[in-house]
What we know:
Shape: globular
Largest sheet: 2 strands, antiparallel
Number of domains: 2
Structural class: mainly alpha
Radius of gyration: 21 Å
Strand content: under 5%
Oligomer: single chain
Amino acid sequence: MARPERNSVDYFPFLCEEGNKMFYLEETYGNDGFATFVKLLRELAKTEYHFLNLSKPSTMMYLSAKCKVQKVVLEAIINDLVDLGKFDAGLWKENNIIWCQDFIDSVQDAYKKRNNKCITFDGLLILLEGLGIRKPLKGTTKVPVNTQRKEKDIKEKDIKEKYDARKLKFSSTLEPYLEVYGKDFLNDFYKYWTEPNNSGTKFRRELENTWDLERRLATWAKNDKNFKPIQNGSTQNTGGFSKNR
C-alpha cells in the first residue's frame, strides 16, 4: 500500500554558526529576535506546503502569542528578516505570506523517501493563484461591510474555506508535473478541472467517477494543438484551452 502524501516535516537542520543576520536580530531584539526566528521556522516545518499566510489578523495574533512577543514586535522582526533576505520579499509585501527558500533547501532530504516531492516556489505560486490568495499590491480603499450581512458572510466564508481546501489538495497533485508541462499548461488544466458545479459545492474533478492524473494530463497535452514541450523553462502555449477534453 502506497504511503499517503505528506507536505510537512517533523524536523529541520539548524546551523550552529551564528552569522551576521542572527547577530543583528539578537542585537536589535535581544533573545526575542533569535527565538522568534526559530519558532517561525518550526511553524514552517509543521505547516502544510511550508508557507505561512498571515493575512488574517487572528493568525498574526496567534503567532505573536506563540512567539511570546507583541504583535508589533513580531511584524518588525518579520520585516527585518525580509530585508535581510531570509523571507521572500514579494510574497510578504503583496500577500503577507512567509516563504523561506533556505528552509525549503534544508528539508529536501526528508522528502527523498516519500511519494511526493517538496513544494517549490513555482509550485507555491500555482497553489496560491488557484486559491485566489495572490492579489495585486495593497492600496485600494476598502468598502465598509453592511452589518446585517455579517452572519451570512461568515457562513459563506466557512463553506468557501472548505471548498478551497479541497482545491488546494487537488492543486498539490499537479506540482510534481511542473517540470514536464510547465506553469501555464498546469494553470489551464487546473482552472478547467476546478470549475464549480451549479450549486458551487463541488468542482469538475470531484464529479468524475474515475481519475488517472497522468492519463488526463497526457490527453490534455495531446488535444492541445498549441502545446509544445518545455523550452527554456516555460511551455510554448499561445492559445486558450478547449473544454471538450
